[in-house]
Amino acid sequence: MPEVIDALKILVNAIHPVPEADWAAFKQIWQPFRAKRKEIITSVGEKEKYLYFVAEGVQRVYYFDDQNREATLVFSYAPSFGGVLDALLLQQPSRYYFETLTPSIFLRAAFPDLQGVMHTHPIIETMVRIGITHSLSGLLERLVELQCYSSEEKFRKLLQRSPHILQLVPHKYLANYLGIEATNFSKLINKVKL
């Protein structure tokens, strides 16, 4: 999977450039992993054991409550990192599910290996921190959208951020992600000029 390692390197260097010696150590911790469509990779109550790099496919992290309500929190697709990051980094039981929506191909790094390379290569720890900070920034922006924007504004913002997402993710999950009823989501697709 040399092309997948190349894609990982491009993503890493886009977050924060990493010298070759540090990259050589970082790339050694990744192993290939495949999952079928609609496979739960991480369940509520489990520790997240891996950081995932998505090479192919679409996944989501979602919450499911005791009243059978579901909330899609985030989507991941190539080339990006995936998994339940708070459970991974805190090494606490996950409060969320990590599920594939399509057959998926990953590289994954076990937490002890990731932690080890971050301790021995501070530039890798810096890159991870910067990546998490970007994720937190995006999450805060999304919270503002969910709390302040109309359905149409949320839909438009999603399309600005990820114009290709309508082709990647089933619409029922997009509607849930935006906090919009599925019927209203269908109306928005027909109403909003793409």
UniProtKB/TrEMBL annotation:
Q: Which domain of life is it from?
A: Bacteria
**InterPro entries for the chain:** cNMP-bd_dom, cNMP-bd_dom_sf, RmlC-like_jellyroll
Q: Which Gene3D superfamilies match?
A: Jelly Rolls (2.60.120.10)
- The chain positions of domain Cyclic nucleotide-binding read 35-120
What is the organism field in this record? Answer: Adhaeribacter aerolatus
Q: In its UniProt entry, what is this protein called?
A: Cyclic nucleotide-binding domain-containing protein
Record SUPFAM superfamilies: cAMP-binding domain-like
